[in-house]
Amino acid sequence: MFATCYDGTEKQKKIIQRAEPDAGVVDCFDHCIQAVMSGYLRSRLLLYTGGRHLTSFFAPSQHVLPDTRCRTFPLPSQARSFSSRRGRSDGSSGQEGENTLRAPRREMDFQLSRLQINAVLCANEQSVRIPEFDGRGGPSPVLRFESNQLSANTPLEDRRSSASCLQTRGMLFGMFDGHGGHACAQAVSERLPYYIAVSMMSESVLEDLEAAMETLRPVPPILQWYKHHNDYNYRESAALYVDHLRVYWQELLASEEHGDGMRPADALSYAFQRLDTDLSLEAQVPLANDLMRNTAIQAAFAGCTACVAYVGPEGVHVANAGDCRAVLGVQEHDGSWSALPLTQDHNAANVTEVERVWRQHPASERQTIIVDDRLLGVLMPLRAFGDVRFKWSRELQQSVLENRDSDLEALNIYQYAPPNYLTPPYLEATPEVTYHRLRQQDRFLILASDGLWDEMTNDEAVRLVAEHLTGIHLQARVSASQLNLGQMHQLLLRRRARATPALDLNGATHLIRHALGTNEYGEMDQERLATMLALPSDLARMYRDDITVTVIYFNSNFSKTTN
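Request: output the structure for the sequence above.
Response:
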């Protein structure tokens, strides 16, 4: 009712024909993925961390592809801790999970083919070109965007969103990193862009929306979505989401100060906080049916971080709550590239953020609020949607959970409060909002979940997108003290061989490929990449996180016009 749907796949066929194979090839790719997951990876894997080797013995399977090559090779990196987000459901920090990794040696002995690697990497790929002029008398600030995601969790806990604001100018891009399940990230990715768009609408436009609802006329569309065919929607809860969005715009209409709508910075901040409040309330009140109730309580007790970029006539506004990240790629006049971060991670590594949390609680809790770099020893991000275990009082949590008819254990929800839970709330979804006026040297913006930033720095990400954009390979620096002459010679030979066009037409895919496959010399290692992609779901999460990336390319004509 509130959106016109747009599938970027169709347009991608017209824009970059090489990037979209025909249906037969797509089916082949799907079969490759299915065979990998159901054949090799179904077999039992054993981990030997002492020597950092991962090997396995596989039983024959009818799903095994004939072109698979097998060999033994070292694991690319040491296993991750049990969870990068929060402890187990019983409240422990997950340290015992690290100890369980030191198991007897077992072996894995195979390698994916290049076709299989590409099939896995490109399964969620999206490329969309935006019309150069927005139809309202000026150039669009966005020329195109490319997006992709790769799961480590099953199911994937990351979500992404991209949409054009139809009642106001500009585009919204969102990155949502879920934890404790995907429910919160799913709900926020669907709903937050609407809350932001409605906040920026003028009073007259909101009156048109309300009049259409009252008279049962078609409602003017608010957003034009750019969806990938694998993106999922909570259709069962759509009526609830519409009702609460309507209540929100009715409150804006009742306000005497709304007038021409909120400025982008205010709209982003207010929408974040309002949606988090709605998620909390929906878990407490009776709802129409069991499915809707279960969805609401799962979304409230799970959590997600969020980073949203609004690219409009004034420039780029970024709202961030958590540890997703937005990084601007800047090309200087001399041709060099630099990374300009537009967000700060909200975790224990950010001293300013830790001090903010400390100030909200008594001094007597200073030693217990942040334990082992986690909030109350459990949660890594210090700002997030949902996560009502860190927001509600003990009494409210107990009341809500005990009065539910649902099977909470089946929903993976348990009655539990973090240790030293004395003066809640400890967590909030209030974003940190930054503004950047677009300049001619600002070429692109990278939005990504922390799964990417665990594997590379801001500068490395910008360098990779820059070389993908320009076709010029910018060599990563290597310290001479790290190599002897023989190693230096081998490295030069590899770099000479690497001076070929990029394998990926999609910049986001290019980043994910290098995040998983880059070795200690900054070079692509196919064996490392194959190993990381071959890990089964119950083991992959120990070595990496879900990775979701969107790269937004700016329209140079827009910056010329505005300047």
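The first helix runs from residue 8 to 15.
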